[in-house]
Specification:
By secondary structure, the protein is of the alpha/beta class. It has helices at 16-29, 35-40, 52-59, 85-88, 101-106, 111-123, 136-140, 144-155, 185-203, 205-210, 224-228, 245-253, and strands at 4-9, 41-46, 65-68, 93-98, 127-132, 168-171, 212-216, 235-238. The structure holds phosphoenolpyruvate.
């Protein structure tokens, strides 16, 4: 059984006090005693690097995990402005978002670079969340699956079967990110199903069935339950709606059985 994972990607938002009060408000809205919540949901928030310490303090004693939004693939060196996996580990970072479309678009990250980061994360026992997704033009041209599969293959190049259980894939159609236009559950399911088939072809049925594939792109409290109800949607990567405690908590609890 795949446990649903909900990750809040704060992007370049908030500062120390705002971050602390957001975490504290999220905690107050989630009932830590709820057996259904514990059994059915894993939750993480991904603040900017400089807020990791403050957020880790505010998360102490809760089940909410810490994620990073990016990292470099080397452990150390002359890479001005970068942050390495061993720098993230002491904060208790459990997940790292890699290959987000904003990194691909604005920072020219390639599949090859993202693959190096995926390998570095695995080496340091930080669970990578590998993001893939097509642009509006690519979808219009009928290239969605080619683009997504190329990003998937590129990001997973050289990854061994034994590493798949540490990896999460996030399907995030670029046209749905921050636009208010989410993929329909059927559109998302179609791509998620094909991603899982590809994982199955490469790693075998059992491992592919255990792999989590998140959906991201304008997830809201209104659409979360119908997206999460699809058989191959195992959670959500949430941008805008993760910056408000009410909406993030509602997404976390959407569709709880
Ligand atoms: C994201 O940036 O990963 C994202 C899904 O953003 P939003 O929820 O705002 O569309």
């Amino acid at each position: 059984m795949r446990k649903t994972l909900i990750v809040g990607n704060w992007k370049m938002n908030l500062e120390r006090l705002g971050a602390r009060s957001l975490v504290s408000a999220i905690r107050s809205k989630l009932d830590p005693q709820s057996a259904r919540l514990k059994e059915q949901r894993e939750i993480a928030v991904a603040p900017p690097f400089v807020l990791l310490y403050a957020v880790s303090q505010e998360l102490a004693g809760s089940d909410i995990l810490l994620a990073a939004q990016n990292m470099h693939f080397e452990d150390s060196g002359a890479y001005t402005g970068e942050v390495s996996p061993p720098m993230l580990k002491p904060f208790g970072v459990r997940y790292v978002i890699l290959g987000h479309s904003e990194r691909r678009q604005f920072f020219k990250e390639t599949d090859d670079l993202i693959n190096k980061k995926v390998k570095a994360a695995l080496r340091h026992r930080i669970n990578p969340i590998l993001c893939v997704g097509e642009t509006a033009d690519q979808r219009k041209e009928g290239r969605t699956l080619d683009v997504v599969m190329a990003q998937l293959e590129g990001g997973l190049e050289g990854i061994e079967a034994s590493q798949l259980s540490s990896l999460t894939i996030a399907y995030e159609p670029v046209w749905a990110i921050g636009t208010g236009v989410n993929a329909t559950p059927e559109q998302a399911q179609e791509v998620h199903g094909i991603i899982r088939n590809r994982l199955q072809a490469r790693f075998g049925t059992e491992l592919a069935q255990g792999a989590r594939i998140l959906y991201g792109g304008s997830v809201t409290p209104e659409n979360a339950a119908s997206l999460l109800a699809m058989p191959d949607i195992d959670g959500a990567l949430v941008g805008g709606a993760s910056l408000k405690a009410d909406s993030f908590a509602a997404i976390v609890m959407a569709g709880l059985g």
